[in-house]
Amino acid sequence: MAAITRLLKPSPLSLLFKQSLSTTTTAAIVSDIESHHHHHHLTPNFSDPKPSRNFQWVFLGCPGVGKGTYASRLSNLLGVPHIATGDLVREELSSSGPLSRQLTEIVNQGKLVSDEIIFNLLSKRLEAGESKGESGFILDGFPRTIRQAEILDEVAEIDLVVNLKLREDVLVEKCLGRRICSQCGKGFNVASINAKAENGRPGMSMDPLLPPQHCASKLITRADDTEHVVKERLRVYYEKSQPVEDFYKSQGKLMEFDLPGGIPESWPKLLEALNLDDSEVKRSAVA
Ligand SMILES: Nc1ncnc2c1ncn2[C@@H]1O[C@H](COP(=O)(O)OP(=O)(O)O)[C@@H](O)[C@H]1O
């Protein structure tokens, strides 16, 4: 199965990304390649005996909504890589590369990094994955501007876009409670959320997502998870990224998902909304 997928694979995405930034003709070529090789399915179809490629999904949502958490769980379940451009940016700024200082300043102000830098980081990541035989993806934190969405559209067919939603007061609290293990990179949350029902909105509570003991002493807080910067990131999201939701809505690919609470309530509901369940996915992996 993996071998077939590889044989059918058009030019590596990483290359196409690079080309698409400098040419305008790529779109036609790629859509031609894709119409020959790609099935189109909005929701996964596990009874398809010969899916030609792996899932290509996008996760949208405000900072703090939980994109990383749910995208990473789904990536484990579906066996496709979870690629978060925020992680790529943080790796770059913690390195001693030439970009590092410039990036730190932008990120710590809650602004967006330039599309060129993001495409560079993303094609490097895809290239590394391709050389390890990875295929498909769940993108998290990308595309974040209409231009990014348009370029992604030229190089890959996106099957499904999941838009996660949560009330804004909860988003800010969640960002402030966010912690990362400096060793393994996993995300946790120390906030205990108990938002009251008001103005017709239901109340909402979320338990903290605490780290295992071996991570507990290595937790760090992102420099951009302060109240001031989170509010700026939300403002930037509404201005630059919300239009991306409409972009995909008009393509009929957007699935809106209102998170009903924390992981224990939300995860099963999300799987249900996606027509997935654990046992089905496992069966298809064996087949
Ligand atoms: N696709 C992107 N385009 C531009 N900047 C990005 C992109 N992805 C990440 N960044 C930069 O990295 C920072 C952190 O991203 P991320 O971890 O996705 O944050 P969030 O928690 O706000 O979703 C962003 O504030 C932005 O500066």
UniProtKB/TrEMBL annotation:
Enzyme class: transferase
Kinase keyword on record: yes
GO cellular component: cytoplasm; mitochondrion
UniProt-listed InterPro entries: Adenyl_kin_sub, Adenylat/UMP-CMP_kin, Adenylat_kinase_CS, P-loop_NTPase
CDD domains: ADK
Keyword line: Kinase, Nucleotide-binding, Transferase
GO molecular function: AMP kinase activity; ATP binding
Ranges in a coiled coil: none
Enzyme Commission code: 2.7.4.3
The UniProt record lists the keyword Nucleotide-binding: yes
Recorded catalytic activity of this chain's protein: AMP + ATP = 2 ADP
Domain of life according to the entry: Eukaryota
Pfam families, sorted: ADK
Family to which this protein belongs: Belongs to the adenylate kinase family.
Subunit details: Monomer.
Name assigned to this protein: adenylate kinase
Species the sequence originates in: Helianthus annuus
